[in-house]
Amino acid sequence: MREITLSNGKTVEVECLSCALTSGEVEPDGGVIVETEYFHAHQDVAYPIKGLVILASKRHIKCFDELNDLEKVDYINLLS
């Protein structure tokens, strides 16, 4: 577990911040921008820089090479 301080000053203890965000365990201050079956887009919860959007896989992966075909199509559709 790691302890992370969010931009609102709240400290959370999580195994993986991305997993905690996509599961709803941690709620981003700006809310969810867009959510699909495979991805979750939100503002960075530690450093809320205007215009910066985090697009996180809902499945815990280490590299985009691990995405399956459905996830790849969803990712491309989100970016287009």
The CATH homologous superfamily corresponds to HIT-like
- Class per helix and strand makeup: alpha+beta
Helix fraction, binned, reads 10-25%
Cα Rg: 13 Å
Q: How far is the N terminus from the C terminus?
A: 35 Å
Question: What is the beta-strand fraction?
Answer: 25-35%
Query: Multimeric state of these chains?
Result: single chain
Biggest sheet architecture: 3 strands, antiparallel
Contiguous uncertain segments of 5+ residues: none
Return the string of H and E elements: EEHEEEH
What's the domain count?
A: 1
Which CATH class applies here? Alpha Beta
Total E-strand runs = 5
For the largest beta sheet, what order do the strands appear in spatially?
3-4-5
| Number of continuous helical runs | 2
Q: What is the CATH topology assignment?
A: HIT family, subunit A
Please identify, by name, the CATH architecture: 2-Layer Sandwich
Shape: globular
- Give average pLDDT, whole number: 92
Notes on the protein architecture:
The chain is built from two helices and five strands, in the order ββαβββα. 22% of the residues lie in helices and 25% in strands. The chain has a single domain, classed as HIT family, subunit A. The protein is an alpha+beta fold and 80 residues long. The radius of gyration is 13 Å and the shape is globular. The protein has a three-stranded antiparallel β-sheet with strand order 3-4-5, sandwiched between helices. The model has no long low-confidence stretch (mean pLDDT 92). GO terms for molecular function: hydrolase activity. Keywords: Hydrolase. It comes from Peribacillus frigoritolerans. InterPro entries: HIT-like_sf.
